[in-house]
Design brief:
It is built from 12 helices and 11 strands. With 316 residues, it is α/β, with parallel strands linked by helices. Bound molecules: adenosine monophosphate (AMP) and manganese (II) ion (2 copies).
């Protein structure tokens, strides 16, 4: 029996199912979560999806008004984690996962630690949502227009609008199938990639002003503090995309962006061609993908900057 057969068997058996994703959820996390949530509901199940906080950009997604912040159920029959590389990244709500009778991880991170009883991890997929499309088809669960909208949101956000190297012919084939269902790609694109909140614009401006170059312009570094976020009344997700400012400057190979939070310095790294930032972040206790990775460092911004630059100097 394949892993997917096992997972379907567990879905059939389970009376209570919870869907979880990583902290600071992005479009792939929320899109994958809601795609599976809607599919399981249509299948006759009554799953919960728990995401304590997420950017309001994604409030247009079908099913988002049913997302729970927490649950009275503590021991689910089945927990499914999506788009999440480690149990630690489930963060404050990992208990729903750890306490569940059966645990499943469906993901596309190369640094996935295989923390489920069943792990369906495909590191070639540019988005977890693309894997879900395969999974739902295997389960013979119909990909409705609503589900397709969630999946397309995941694919569009994680591929930066079909422009990153993970995009394959298969991605476009999948997307063509979704468009045939009448999904409005240009509307999703505008909502999730093009339109920025005012606070996001203000934070980007602050970060751009502070941006420094190292190693002959091959490294771009910038940061925002808690005070910066307060000063612009930032909401969840308003830091998204700032790391791309440095990445997109000619000559830059690695862009580093630090966001100061109560849990420490959240580091985002992006590379353009040859540096594997997932390896760099793994050495710093994090992980991710070859061209997009992150980690959290418990120190000041200045100390974090030094640690990161030291690691990068060896590979740049
Ligand atoms: P971000 O810069 O937060 O958008 O993250 C870029 C990629 O790295 C995403 O796929 C994250 O899931 C992953 N990532 C970020 N932080 C960590 C971490 N501490 N451990 C593992 N993966 C991470
Ligand atoms: Mn994600
Ligand atoms: Mn993803």
């Amino acid at each position: 029996m394949s892993t997917l057969d096992n997972i379907l068997e567990e879905i059939n058996k389970a009376e209570s199912i919870v869907i979880l994703t990583h902290e600071n959820p992005d479009g792939d996390a929320i899109g994958s979560g809601l795609a599976l949530y809607n599919a399981l509901k249509n299948y006759g199940k009554n799953p919960d999806i728990i995401i304590p906080e997420y950017p309001r950009t994604f409030e247009f997604l079908p099913g988002s008004d049913e997302i729970k912040k927490e649950s009275e159920i503590t021991k689910y029959d089945l927990a499914i984690s999506l788009d999440c590389a480690t149990i630690k990244m489930l963060n404050g709500f990992a208990n729903y996962f750890e306490d569940a009778k059966v645990k499943v991880s469906i993901d596309h991170h190369s640094t996935n630690t295989m923390f489920g009883d069943y792990n369906y991890v495909s590191t070639d997929a540019p988005a977890c949502a693309q894997i879900l499309l395969i999974v739902l088809e295997y389960f013979k669960m119909e990909v409705t227009k609503d589900i397709g909208t969630c999946i397309l949101t995941g694919i569009i956000t994680d591929t930066g609008g079909f422009k990153y190297s993970g995009v394959t012919a298969e991605t476009f084939e999948f997307v063509a199938g979704l468009l045939n269902k009448g999904i409005n790609v240009s509307k999703i694109y505008r909502k999730v990639l093009q339109t920025k909140t005012r606070a996001n614009f203000e934070l980007t401006r602050i970060a751009a002003d502070r941006l420094e170059f190292f190693e002959d312009g091959k490294i771009a570094f910038t940061y925002i503090t808690k005070e910066d976020e307060e000063s612009v009344n930032a909401e969840n997700g308003d830091h998204e995309g700032i790391v791309e400012t440095g990445r997109d400057i000619e000559g830059v190979e690695v862009s580093v962006f630090i966001r100061q939070t109560d849990k420490g310095c959240k580091v985002s790294m992006r590379s353009n061609e040859y540096v594997n930032v997932s390896d760099v972040c793994l050495l710093l206790g994090g992980g991710g993908h070859i061209h997009a990775a992150g980690c959290t460092l418990q120190c000041t911004i200045e100390q974090a900057k030094e640690k990161i630059l030291r690691q990068l100097k060896g590979v740049i």
